[in-house]
Amino acid sequence: MKIESIGVIGAGLMGAGIAEVCAVAGFPVVLVKATGGDPEVARAKIKASLDARVARGKLAATAAVTALERLTVTTDKLAAARCDLIIESIVEDLGEKRALFAELAPHLAPHAILASNTSTLKIADLAAGLREARTIGLHFFSPVPAMALVEVAHTAATDADVVPAAEAFVAALGKTAVPVLDSTGFIVNRLLVPLLLNAIHAYGQGLATAEQIDTAMRLGCGQPVGPLALSDLIGLDVVYAMAKLLYKDTGDACYRPPALLRRLVQEGQLGKKTGRGLYDHTSKPPRENAAVAALIRGGAQRAA
What's the total number of domains in the chain? Predict the structure, then answer.
């Protein structure tokens, strides 16, 4: 099959980014603001992102205009259900995603592909008893316009034409598809999460400052962003949720969330999106969160 129209449900950071790259690539896109409210807020967010790309010389002004013309923003989920490919990007919760899939399933064309942008949940669990043969994972990475990878997660029940169609779609976006057998965390997060957790644990033990740990990993391992800064960018709540799910699924101690991560999440210090996490993002450039650094120093002094 050939994918010609895209529905995206969820207009947050990831959903808006997915809708943006699809529209720029020439696909007509229906973006659904799943949480209600004025859908034009989502359109304005995408326009601002496109304008920023034009200002940086990354996108022609005419391409930005035509991309917006291809974009329909609505609160009607069934408008997206008429598309060839429907990508959900709502809250990372198995029950809510399954409820959405159950609502959409009766309205989808037989050939339509239903995809989840989940980063950790199993596609088999999402699709069980619904549209198992035509449901896959399409895991985009943030920020969507800049990141080149999309993990394409499939199960033993996936129809033979689905993964090739998804790969062609990803290629049309100018990105690289990596097919992966369905599992908790797929490839990237199964390998990335232990790195992030170990960095947070090392920081919590007072091994070095946040900046020093990130500098060591950037210069020593060639990473563009250090693991603590990346954790803040992803969102400490998201890192915590991924770790808990992987730990529950595998029982491997490498996925056990460190105490510092759990405390910051409980306090609502979630990283860049809340202004503070491991770093203080209210300062430009971001610097070590003084309250966290003081907490770590206090713990080290008590241990001594």
Answer: 2
